[in-house]
Amino acid sequence: KHPVYRKYVKKRKKFMAHDETGAKIGDKVRIVETRPLSARKRWRVVEIIQRAEL
Known about the structure:
By secondary structure, the chain is mostly beta strands. The chain has strands at about 15-20, 30-35, 45-50. Helices cover about 0% and strands about 30% of the residues. The N and C termini lie far apart (about 35 Å).
């Protein structure tokens, strides 16, 4: 709940993640923090939790 407005708020954030598993757009994946792999990429994909529906 929001502390002032008392409404439930959904939060979303985009991460640049290194993907060797071949995840597609819309897939739900688990990511973990890792050493810097590039200037903006500090996460890597561990597993694909749920595939996107076509």
